[in-house]
Write a structure and sequence with these properties.
alpha+beta; 3-stranded antiparallel beta sheet; 3 strands; elongated
């Protein structure tokens, strides 16, 4: 894991199209802004995990055909 220190209004660039900006720093919270191309999904970790769990629960196309038989 890369750990960086940034101050308010400073940025981090990832690849060619993702920019993370430190918007606000409070006692125990950091607010960040994320600019990314439209084709790059950006989610909070807990939302990403929920999406992954939901995708695992969906039947595959082969399972759907077997169930219909």
């Amino acid at each position: 894991m890369l750990v960086l220190s940034r101050k308010k209004n400073e940025q981090i660039v990832i690849g060619d199209g993702i920019v993370i900006t430190i918007v606000e720093v409070r006692a125990d919270k950091v607010r960040i802004g994320i600019e990314a191309p439209a084709h790059v999904p950006v989610h909070r970790h807990e939302v990403y995990l929920a999406i992954q769990r939901a995708a695992e629960e969906l039947p595959t196309s082969e399972e759907a055909v077997i169930d219909e038989a």
